[in-house]
Design goal:
Elements lengths: L1 E11 L18 E4 L12 H17 L2 E14 L2 E2 L10 H7 L3 E4 L2 E4 L5 H11 L7 E6 L11 E7 L4 E6 L2 E6 L14 H10 L5 E5 L5 H9 L4 E6 L2 H13 L6 E5 L11 E6 L10 H6 E14 H4 L4 H12 L8 E8 L9 E10 L1
Parallel strand pairs: 6-7, 11-12, 11-14, 12-13, 14-15
Antiparallel strand pairs: 1-3, 2-3, 3-4, 5-6, 7-8, 9-10, 15-17, 16-17
Organism: Cladocopium goreaui
GO molecular function: transferase activity
Keywords: S-adenosyl-L-methionine, Transferase
Length: about 375
């Protein structure tokens, strides 16, 4: 008798680890996860036998702590009393795991749960998450005003490995960060991975590049490794992030061309001139950016980032250009025209409904 039965996502009780498809084979009659494009169906030589087999499986699933709904197909084969599998089971897909596991955000190998008032709920969810081989530790997000440092958002260890230091990898480089001390968006920070790759293609050999708001050094290291600058200097206001940046520069052996210092992002009196400035700043009125224009060499480029609505993005940024032209006019060494050479969404999707982060390349021609 062959019975194919659609059963859904296999949801667990909180105190039971999520089984793999192969572990599900221990249930009797044996069954294996299988995907089908068709809708619900059942085929058997005997409807009575089919009903009996289905009832047996449902009973044994409940005994194993499994709750059966709709969305996954399970093939159950019983022949004589010996269990036979129609074909090998497949690993659960990412979307299926997302349905089965408690809601969380992955930071490399640390799962971060949303803030919760119930420690019991956190421990229950952590136990389920730690059953997955790719999760080393579980933490919980603590918003600003909560936790040891009330001035900033952070995370707190819940279960698993108490060491919350993670290693993020990009462009063949490794970046360490202890997320119990500081948080980072990694692939989406400082314009995102795509923006870093774009900037690396623009840096000409021998250029001096300044990164404002350099964080833990991701952009500075990527530009130093993927291009041939004379120097890449990162400035970070947060001293803790700057310490991680200095360590990451050393770990990636980029000390010859890349540096990171802690200080005021708009104090450039002792830094000299630069061919290129990447301004990853929090919102600032354009008139406050006068020091940036003073630090640009003639022919240099300012990479400026701003937030714009969908309507603003659809229009020409004439007001922004006029504001930067007025700033450039205050510096005698900048005699050329300020031109917009590129404008685009960074990253290339909205950060809120109909609201984008937009990058602009402003070149002193």
């Amino acid at each position: 008798m062959l019975l194919q039965w659609e059963v859904s996502s296999m949801l667990l009780r909180s105190d039971i680890r999520i089984p793999t498809p192969w572990e599900c084979q221990r249930l009797q009659p044996s069954f294996a996860c299988r995907s089908h494009a068709s809708s619900r169906f059942c085929s058997s030589r005997s409807s009575v036998a089919a009903t009996a087999t289905a009832a047996t499986v449902l009973s044994r699933c409940r005994g194993q702590g499994l709750r059966l709904r709709t969305s996954q197909k399970v093939a159950m084969v019983a022949r004589g009393g010996d269990d036979v599998f129609a074909d090998p089971p497949r690993e659960l897909s990412r979307s299926t795991k997302k349905q089965l596991l408690p809601k969380h955000h992955m930071m490399v190998d640390v799962a971060v749960l949303a803030a919760s008032d119930s420690e019991e709920d956190l421990q229950r969810d952590a136990k389920v998450l730690l059953s997955q081989p790719h999760i080393r530790s579980v933490a919980v997000f603590e918003p600003r005003g909560v936790g040891l440092d009330e001035s900033r958002a952070g995370v707190r260890h819940v279960a698993g490995d108490p060491n919350l230091e993670i290693i993020y990898k990009e462009s063949g480089l490794s970046f360490r960060l202890d997320i119990s001390q500081r948080l980072s968006r990694f692939s989406r920070c400082q314009g995102g991975r795509g923006e870093r790759e774009r900037l690396a293609t623009l840096v000409a050999p021998g250029e001096r590049v300044l990164i404002l708001g350099s964080g833990i050094g991701i952009t500075a290291c990527v530009l130093g490794a993927r291009s041939e600058p004379a120097e890449v200097l990162g400035i970070e206001r947060d001293e803790v992030k700057n310490e991680f940046a200095v360590a990451n520069i050393c770990d990636n052996k980029l000390q010859r061309t890349v540096r990171s210092i802690a200080g005021d992002l708009l104090d450039m009196s002792q830094l000299g001139s630069f061919n290129r400035i990447c301004a990853f700043l929090k919102f600032q009125p354009i008139e406050n950016l006068q020091p940036l224009m003073g630090a640009l060499m003639p022919g240099g480029t300012l990479h400026y980032y701003n937030h714009e609505s969908k309507e603003e993005f659809s229009q020409e940024p004439s007001a922004v250009l006029e504001a930067f032209r007025a700033l450039a006019a205050g510096h005698p060494h900048l005699q050329g025209e300020v031109r917009l050479t590129w404008r685009g969404k960074v990253p290339r999707k909205s950060i809120a409904p109909k609201f984008y982060r937009v990058g602009m390349d402003l070149k002193i021609s």
